[in-house]
Every structure is written in C-alpha cells, then in structure tokens.
C-alpha cells in the first residue's frame, strides 16, 4: 500500500473531529451519507446542504451546512506509507 486517504469530519455541535482512514477516496454520495449518519447520531437537526468544494495540492475540502451548523469535510491523500520497524528483544 503506497497511500491512504484520511477523511476528517469537523461539525459544529460535535466536540471532536471524526477521522476515517481508507484506501479509496469517498464519493460525494458516501460523504453525504456519513454526514447524515453523524447528524442523526448526534441529534443535529436541519437540512444538509452542500455549499462549496475547494481543491488545493491534491487535498479536497467539502463545505456543508446542517441547518445553521457548519460542517467541513477534509479529504487528504497521504503518500508513501511507512511501517514502524520492529524492535528486537
């Protein structure tokens, strides 16, 4: 495996960012489904609306709103995964 996709969901109303690591980049539909699941799980009400997509240096930032709460989804491609070396005993 040479790279991994790190997807971070930052939603106002959820105290910590939610991070998901994957070997494949999520589609816009998959991102929307995860936002819907998180909104339902944290009792966030309001219509989910896509606002903007920003792309910079191969990373993507999706901006959504859940009612009046802002939701940012950062999709980062991390290259050249390195393994930790085993420690001899």
List the SSEs and their pairings.
Elements: E1 3-11, E2 18-22, H1 28-41, E3 48-56, E4 59-66, E5 69-79
Antiparallel strand pairs: 1-2, 1-5, 3-4, 4-5
Brief overview:
The chain is of the alpha+beta class.
Question: Could you describe the 3D structure shown?
Answer:
The protein is an alpha+beta fold and 89 residues long. The chain has one domain (3-79). Helix content is 16%, strand content 47%. The chain is built from one helix and five strands, in the order E-E-H-E-E-E. The chain has one helix at residues 28-41; strands spanning 3-11, 18-22, 48-56, 59-66, 69-79. Strands 2-1-5-4-3 form a five-stranded antiparallel beta sheet. The longest helix is centred in the middle third of the chain and has 14 residues, at 28-41. The radius of gyration is 15 Å and the shape is elongated.
């Amino acid at each position: 495996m040479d790279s991994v996709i790190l997807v971070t969901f930052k939603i106002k109303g959820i105290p910590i960012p939610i991070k998901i690591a994957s070997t494949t980049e999520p589609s816009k539909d998959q991102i929307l489904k995860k936002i819907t699941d998180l909104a339902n799980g944290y009792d966030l009400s309001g219509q989910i609306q896509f606002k903007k997509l920003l792309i910079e240096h191969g990373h993507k930032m999706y901006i959504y709103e859940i009612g009046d709460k802002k939701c940012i989804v950062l999709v980062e491609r991390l290259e050249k995964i390195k393994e930790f070396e085993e420690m001899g005993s």
